[in-house]
User: Which sequence fits this backbone?
């Protein structure tokens, strides 16, 4: 099944590269990051709910939580910081 997630903190192609690479390393073959809309959208092909949960966890670990997730101020700051690092890594690779 194809699933699209609205994701926060995605700003550029560096972010998109990091997201795409991380998901592909976990075995997701169909990964698309749409930078032309707001909020940004990540589309993946997953076969079940467990894989969808895995995608969400990977995105959050990289600093890109889902737009509709409830986060406290500290979590938001931490996730933004993680996303800056992820973005920089994506620009280098």
Assistant:
């Amino acid at each position: 099944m194809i699933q699209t997630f609205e994701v926060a903190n995605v700003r550029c192609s560096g972010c998109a590269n990091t997201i795409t690479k991380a998901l592909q390393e976990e075995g997701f073959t169909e990964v698309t990051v749409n930078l032309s809309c707001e909020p940004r959208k990540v589309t993946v092909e997953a076969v079940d709910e467990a894989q969808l949960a895995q995608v969400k966890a990977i995105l959050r670990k990289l600093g890109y939580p889902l737009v509709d997730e409830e986060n406290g101020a500290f979590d938001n700051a931490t996730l933004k910081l993680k996303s800056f690092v992820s973005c920089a890594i994506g620009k280098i690779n």
